[in-house]
Design brief:
The structure is a single chain. The protein is of the alpha/beta class. It is 54% helix and 16% strand. The protein is extended, with a radius of gyration of 27 Å.
Length: 300
């Protein structure tokens, strides 16, 4: 619900924006100055209008109406400015500054909400990816090149794993928000929010892997022509089941999904560079279990 007065706006800012105490005080002071000035403007307009009526100055009343309309427009513009400012600050607080992807905390919050309330999806997939041998790039080529590699892989991830993907999406008319995040360092995580079947996750993950393999890395640094970048990917495909199975276990399930994807990613690192590992799971008694396995083999 939108704030209706100054106190609700201040409460809204404190609850929604992760600002330092100093930044929060500066923002609230700026808002207070603008609102106080507007209040004085309105009060002056009202007093002037009363004097004009008492004196019978019809012409002055017409002029005041024009001024009041202009001041209305000014107040509206100020309101729109602060709405956009708050929206921008909120967005920035949820983004990794280097890659512009979601930060991991916000990704987990959104994943938890998705698991808690989604009712239309049959399969989804949560994946983790990292840059194979990234430490060597940093050590040999320098951190500046390492940063550019991270930024390019992040862009390829966002381009190749999309929520409106016709391969992955069961109903292409129902577009869902993008869910790509920087897990930390040279690692990334993503959600494929709508799969017709679990096997489709491999096609999407492979496309991302091939996009990284096929990129002309000499554009980032000419020395990468001889040592192109590869990624290792681990993907957990979840049979969503009934919402009632997820609703009160969403936080735990989100953590388990990321943990399993992380283990798969590290399994992939042990094989040939640029591998993808897939695991299909379902929910059983509020935890993840292997999909399609015998009961005694379902435990992860």
């Amino acid at each position: 619900m939108a704030p209706r007065d100054r106190s609700e706006l201040e409460a809204w800012i404190r609850s929604r924006l992760a600002l330092s105490a100093e930044r929060e005080r500066e923002l609230l002071d700026a808002i207070g100055l603008v609102l106080d000035r507007q209040h004085r403007m309105w009060q002056e307009s009202k007093d002037e209008a009363i004097r004009a009526i008492a004196a019978g100055f019809t012409e002055k009343l017409a002029r005041l109406r024009e001024e009041l309309s202009a001041r209305n427009a000014t107040v509206s513009s100020i309101g729109q400015y602060f709405e956009s400012l708050v929206a921008e600050l909120t967005e920035r607080s949820h983004r990794d500054p280097k890659t512009k992807l979601m930060n991991f905390d916000w990704f987990m919050s959104q994943l938890e909400s998705f698991l808690e309330i989604e009712q239309r999806v049959r399969w989804c997939a949560i994946g983790l990816a990292d840059i194979h041998g990234f430490k060597q790039y940093n050590d040999v080529l320098g951190h500046a090149v390492g940063d550019r590699i991270i930024e390019r892989v992040a862009r390829l991830l966002a381009e190749q794993i999309r929520s409106d993907d016709l391969i992955a999406q069961d109903d292409p008319r129902s577009r869902r928000p993008e869910m790509h995040a920087r897990f930390g360092g040279d690692e990334f995580c993503f959600l494929i929010p709508d799969l017709g079947e679990g096997a489709q996750a491999r096609a999407v993950a492979d496309r991302f892997r091939r996009a990284v393999d096929g990129y002309d890395w000499s554009q980032v640094d000419r020395r990468l022509a001889d040592q192109p970048v590869r990624v290792d990917v681990g993907v957990v495909c979840l049979w969503m089941g009934r919402p009632s199975e997820r609703r009160f276990a969403a936080r735990r399930l989100a953590l388990e999904l990321v943990d399993q994807a992380d283990k798969l990613m590290y399994d992939a690192k042990g094989d040939e560079a640029g591998d993808v590992r897939i695991l299909r799971v379902r929910i059983e008694d509020g935890h993840l279990a292997r999909y399609g396995a015998k009961k005694e083999d379902r435990h992860l």
